[in-house]
Amino acid sequence: MADGTQSIEAPWEADAIRALFDSKTGWLDRRVHSDAVLYQLELERIFARGWNFMCHESQLPNVGDYFINYIGEDQVICVRDDEGQINVLLNTCRHRGNALCRAEQGRAKSFVCSYHGWNYALDGRLIGVPGQSTYYRGDLDRSRLGLVKAAKVESYLGFYFATMSSDAPSLHDYLGDVGRTGLGMVCANGEVEVVDGIQKNIIDCNWKIAVDNLFDWYHVMYSHASAGSAGFIDLASIVHPKNQMVMLGDYGQAIGGPGVPKAMQDKIDLMSDEERLAYARSGQSEFPRLRSPKAADLMGPEGVRSMGHPNLFPNVWITLDGFQICLRLPRGPSHTELWWFTIVPKEAPPPFRQAIIRQANHVFGPAGLLEQDDGENWSQSTRAAAGFSSRKVGAALLMGLGRDEVAVGGNGQTSIEGYVGEHAQRWFYRSWTEWLAARDWAELEATRSPPPTGVV
Amino acid sequence: MSAAAGTKTRAKPASAAERAVLQYEVEQFLYAEAALLDARNYREWLGLIADDIHYWMPIRRTVTLSDIDREFTKPGDMAYFDDDRTMLEMRVKKLEARSAWSEDPPSRSRHFVSNVRILSVAGDEITVEVSFHLYRTRLNSEVSSWVGRRLDVLRRADGGFRLARRHIFLDQTVIPTTNMSTLF
Fold it and tell me: Are B53 and B84 contacting, i.e. CB atoms less than 8 angstroms apart?
């Protein structure tokens, strides 16, 4: 009987998968962005095995509220049950596989299948089967036919995640210090809620190209030149090419982008909140955004300096100083569905809330003045590298390789600081090969690399 | 239209002949405006835009009939477009920049406007509902198609119209395209 644990036929041997990225030379095999078998392995060994972002608690305030999300390509229902718990259920009826929920979000008393009327409680129990006593002659064990539940559902700071693997470490350990720092960035201004409306669009690119790009502060000046020259954004003021800070964590967690230099943070730490805001607005600060020292409680003494982009492995990008989360859902080797969640502090005064929403609406999303050109580059990077001859050429992730050093700072937080580089991308692809080569959690734990130390 | 009609609010112009003339004027304006966008004549298009325009495309969701009042996001929440004139000017400047990679080489677009219905006339302002189909193709093989309903407000000015509001209600929920770098 198929119990869902069998591995699919994999012509890729573990050594061949590990060879797809050479972290010592920085060369990546372009087939990682187009190979259909590698893609199927990703669904099994990365998405079903890892922790996937589901929703924020503010999206499901009441009993019966549900929100549809995905674990890889598997649709799941995130729903608050009568006990107040958030369940993650595979959206497929146990009878013939029909989708129970067709809406993206809503409120339900129970989930009734539109095919034959099987009825499931909000916690997934099968509570009604038409004709159970007659057609089935009373001989149907409903207790074995509940909806398939995610193996684990856990939350951090109100953000819910799910994994299909019962062997997965706790969410806390999976995120590690770097992932928790990333979610800490979202909550650095206090408790948050998701604004109504999630932008969704499909880009014809491999999902990893979108992840690679979030760490990429090299492309900003060129890719987004038109948004700069139109007067929409002062690109030079956001890149800080000599003050970059990369943090690498277990399981492929990473943060990359600008970082406030330590000496400057030491100065900020002595300021009151009012002095800090005045300093940021005075124009004297090279960084127009400076975090409250209180944010260090969630981000750590070094992490609080990051003004960059966390990625929660594999596909959760935190951006705009934590005011947006972009989920990159795989849709085949050459398509990715992007979901933009916009997040505001619950206590934000209306003008601040509106400013966040206005910025989110105009920077990212399919019509965003920056994102428009990203989509063009990602789709063409996928397409132009997929041909028979083109895919034999390596992708170059050479920037800064062997030139920087991992520094150990306060609370043991580590960072790589200096010029714009490609340390985070290399860590992402290195971790990706290790996830994909390992058959199960035990093998992944035994073979994965710890975050690099020393010269990188 | 007479000067008196411009100051008086009423549901429809009085006579069938007046209604036919207004319908003709409105349609000709919408076709001319669409032609400017198809021709990438964005500067001239901006000339048709009122200073106080609200150019808005809310997010549509697939919801059940019992949640149908939540099908679209509300003003002030998230949207695909939520632009004032300054933001539209920025979009045009971007399109002209020669570094807007998503539109250079430029897309080829066709704005179809149909089912034009004048819903109300209030003073100088005419509220018009249209169905639209924006077809875009770019590079060798990329094809995008956006279909929906629009609520436009046309305001009489300088012997013609200015577009004072454009609310765009797409029929699509998940946007099936890499971007929306063209104007609707």
Answer: yes
Instruction: Return d(Cα A34, Cα B141) in angstroms, integer.
Output: 19
> What CATH number is associated with residue B161?
3.10.450.50
- Identify the burial level of B166 via C-beta atoms within 10 angstroms of its C-beta, where 0-12 means exposed, 13-18 middle and 19 or more buried: buried
How big is the CA angle at A375 (ends B48 and B100), to the nearest 5 degrees? 45
The answer to whether residues A193 and A235 touch, using CB atoms and an 8 Å cutoff, is: no
Residue A10: how many other CB atoms lie within 10 Å:
17
Give me the DSSP letters along chain B. --HHHHHSEESS-SSHHHHHHHHHHHHHHHHHHHHHHHTT-HHHHHTTEEEEEEEEEEPB----GGGGGGSBPPTTS-EEEEE-HHHHHHHHHHHTSS--GGGSSPPEEEEEEEEEEEEEEETTEEEEEEEEEEEEEETTTEEEEEEEEEEEEEEEETTEEEEEEEEEEES-SSB-SS---S--
Question: CA–CA separation, A343 vs A326, rounded Å?
Answer: 11
Q: What's the domain range around B134?
A: 3-170
Domain membership flag for residue B48: yes
Q: Is A442 exposed, middle or buried (0-12, 13-18, 19+ CB in 10 A)?
A: exposed
**How far is residue A221's CA from residue A417's CA, in Å, rounded to a whole number?**
20
Residues A33 and A383: their CA atoms lie apart, in Å, by 9
Sign of the C-alpha dihedral computed for residues A219, A224, A229 and A233 taken in this order: negative
Chain pair A-B, CB pairs under 8 angstroms = 140
Just give the CATH number of A52-155. Answer: 2.102.10.10
Q: Where are the domains of chain A?
A: 52-155, 177-447
**Cα B24 from chain centre:** 18
Closest CA to A64 of A109, A10, A13: A109
Residues from chain B that touch A110, judged by Cβ atoms under 8 A, are none
The answer to whether B102 contacts A373, with C-beta atoms less than 8 Å apart, is yes
For residues A345 and B84, give the distance between their C-alpha atoms in angstroms, rounded to a whole number. Answer: 25
Structure tokens at A234: 């002062």
Is B178 a member of any domain?
no
Q: Is the Cβ–Cβ distance between A105 and B61 less than 8 Å? A: yes
Q: The complex's ipTM?
A: 0.94
What are the φ and ψ backbone dihedral angles of A180, each rounded to 5 degrees? -70, -35
Residue of B nearest to A355 (CA): B76
Residue A111 in tokens:
């989930």
Whether residue B80 lies inside any domain: the answer is yes
Hey, are the CB atoms on B94 and A379 less than 8 Å from each other?
Answer: no
- In chain B, which residues have their Cβ closer than 8 Å to the Cβ of A196? 73-74, 77-78
Residues of A within 8 A of B175 (CB-CB) are 199-202, 366
Q: Are A89 and A124 in contact (CB under 8 A)?
A: yes
Q: What is the mean pLDDT of residues B99-125?
A: 96
> Could you say which architecture CATH assigns to the domain A177-447?
Alpha-Beta Complex (3.90)
How large is the average pLDDT for residues B145-169? 97
Looking at the complex, does the CB of residue B131 fall below 8 Å from at least one CB of chain A? no
Classify residue B181: in a domain, yes or no. no
B159 phi, psi to nearest 5 deg: 75, 5
What are φ and ψ of residue A272, in 5° steps? Answer: -75, 170
Mean pLDDT, each 10-residue run in order, chain A (456 residues): 49 94 98 96 98 98 98 98 98 98 97 98 98 96 98 98 98 98 96 98 98 98 96 93 97 97 90 87 82 91 97 97 97 98 97 96 96 95 95 96 97 97 98 98 98 98
For chain B, what is the domain count? 1
Q: Please tell me the pTM assigned to this model.
A: 0.95
